[in-house]
Amino acid sequence: MVAALVFLAIAGATYFWLNNEPNWYVEENAVQSASHPLAGFWKEEGCNDAWGWAIGPVEPKIYYISFCGPGGCFKEGTYRPNTTLVDDPLYKIVDDNTILFKSNGDWSKHVRCSGR
Prior knowledge:
This protein is of the alpha+beta class. The protein has helices at residues 2-19, 24-28, and strands at 40-43, 52-59, 62-69, 72-73, 80-83, 91-95, 98-103, 106-113. A hairpin with a 2-residue loop joins strand 3 and strand 4.
């Protein structure tokens, strides 16, 4: 878990250093709606971290998933491929406020939070 967090911090810092664009609109556009009920800002349980995942609308039934931290967000479609979430083998929808992400063969639990 610690190794994964260190990797995320380094990857995020490297991305933002090379990209120089904070892309805050990615987090701002990640808003739950009738057409995209799973949109929002997601973190590990407790919602205490200074980072998380913005899930937002791309087109009907398609979402982007972008990692956001203190330095900004990855541009939509660049952190993880756009997805339907539902019926995607890399995600399990537990309920309206809980999603499991599959990464490197392991599942991680994410809950809807108010924001970064």
